[in-house]
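Posting this for the archive.
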Amino acid sequence: MEQVEASIERYLSALETADRQEGELTEAKSARLKDKIGALREQMRKYKALEVAAHAAPDKQISLTDPDARSMATSGKDTGMVGYNVQAAVDAKHHLIVAHKVTNIGNDRSQLPTMAKQAQEATGVRELTAIADRGYFKGEEILACEATGVTPLVSEAADLRRQGGRPVWQTGFRLRRGRRRLSLSCRREADLAILECRGGTKAA
């Protein structure tokens, strides 16, 4: 709105200068300037209406391309992406998605208990081991998982930085338990919670 207002002021100044001059070219230029000013004022009216609607929205956002999409922070400073946060729980053995969720929350901190519960319901297995990257680390959520029979294995980012180590998605190390071998490597760009059943079929 500030940019549009500045453009209107600039065109009004140019129009005032053109009105002091004479000639057919000047009249044509004045007509073009008036058209541009009219278009900008119409654009300003639309922006003002959107501003009112945005302030009335619960999260103060309106997406003109997809009503359900929302602006979410990215790793870059002062940057964002308009879209969704898609969560997926994946079977560690068969690599099948057993549960998924689409949310507008821009981070994964509070997603682990919800996804673990969906995985429990989808597989019918109560005792699961949930493996997730450091984006899911939050003390309260880890405790919530344990209360429902889910054992969470989540990288704690602050400790890794202090110790000079690397996060799970970079190390690609593997966890051995009996005859089972489970990869803990995760793709950074695809935040997946990989779960393993205790005994019986593995599930996520």
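The helical segments are 2-19, 24-56, 112-123, 139-147, 157-163, 168-171. The radius of gyration is 27 Å.
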